What does this fold into?
Amino acid sequence: MIDLWQTVPGVSVKRAKLLSEAKVWIDTFRNDTAFRQRMLNLIKQDQLRERGVDSDGEVIGYYSFTTSLINPKKAFNTHFTLDDTGELLRSMFLVVTLDYFQYEWDDEKIRDQDWWSPEILGLTDENLDIISAQYFERLSDIGWGILSDNL
It folds into this structure.
């Protein structure tokens, strides 16, 4: 009698049972510092510094002529970057639980501004697609690695 669990496909199936999406999620979003940094940079660099947009893709605001006279680094009619002193963007961090992630930062100084909204601290659909693709690629790589170790 042949024990199918001792064959190459049987061993691969047993290994696949060990694959936990929660483990991959935590390893990716909580423990992989390079991945977390890429996620933070999507908001800091792409959305805020380069485009000045919130999670809906809407421009947060534009610098006024008066502001440009007070601070030449804030050119008239260019988008807000929220990087005036760097303090706000440096305070940004990622909270990861078993079923979601969210961005947090110390927004106490700007929360009372009329342009402020919670959507500032979220990924655009485009950037969420980038993160999703990278996560599922990692999930697939780990899964194939487990399945193919004995093939």
